[in-house]
Design brief:
The protein has 11 helices and 2 strands. It has a two-stranded antiparallel sheet with strand order 1-2. It is elongated and about 65 Å long.
């Protein structure tokens, strides 16, 4: 309820809280429907949230507004992205395992988040920043190796450390979250050790496809 006295406007805290709770129920309903069906319709959202279709449209005027709000809400829920960049290449292996453990309980939300335009843009920006960080680490740690090899190493680790990789391993190879993350972590460490153990960057470059 709002009361106006002269130019002063008062908004009831209880009303604001109820509005936020309703909004959250709607977004939760959208997320669960996308997780189950890959999409949503407003009528089903309203039913699951326990509100009317009119209420859904009161909070979100159209489908695009729902998806934008969902992406922002999930980003806040998941704390994504996390700019906790590792200090060396091998640490990307440990970061991959840690990330999987952090997100395991929210895996459905992660998948839904990345299906939204907000999530896709957040992922694009985070991946670009991570690749540049990996390039700097590769150049610093592998100063004596051919630049082409350092670049390849950065790109491959970047792909391996992606959440897409361990989600694909779960979907396609039947790994659980921990198994997928540990497999990716092992691959990164093995790759870094192999490149660092190469006696000559030039020899490695000739042997590389």
């Amino acid at each position: 309820m709002q009361e106006t006295a002269g130019t002063r406007t008062y908004e009831s805290p209880l009303r604001r809280e109820n509005s936020e709770n309703t909004r959250t129920r709607i977004l939760n309903a959208v997320a669960s429907l996308i997780s189950e069906d890959g999409d949503f319709v407003v009528a089903k959202v309203a039913k699951r949230a326990g509100v009317s279709v009119r209420t859904v449209y009161h909070h979100f005027p159209d489908r695009e507004a729902i998806l934008d709000a969902l992406g922002e809400w999930l980003a806040d829920q998941l704390g994504y992205p996390r700019p906790d960049w590792p200090k060396d290449l091998a640490s990307f292996a440990d970061q991959t395992v840690a990330m999987a453990e952090r997100l395991r309980a929210d895996e459905d939300k992660v998948r839904v988040f990345f299906s939204t335009s907000v999530g896709q843009e957040a992922r694009r920006q985070a991946r670009a920043q991570r690749l540049e960080h990996l390039r700097r680490l590769a150049q610093a740690e592998l100063g004596g190796i051919e630049p082409q090899i350092a670049e390849r190493l950065a790109i491959i680790i970047h792909q391996l450390a992606s959440s897409r990789t361990w989600l694909a391993m779960q979907d396609e190879a039947g790994f659980d979250t921990s198994e997928a993350a540990e497999a990716v972590g092992w691959a990164i460490k093995a790759l870094v050790e192999s490149v660092k153990g190469t006696a000559s960057g030039e020899t490695y470059a000739r042997e590389a496809p």
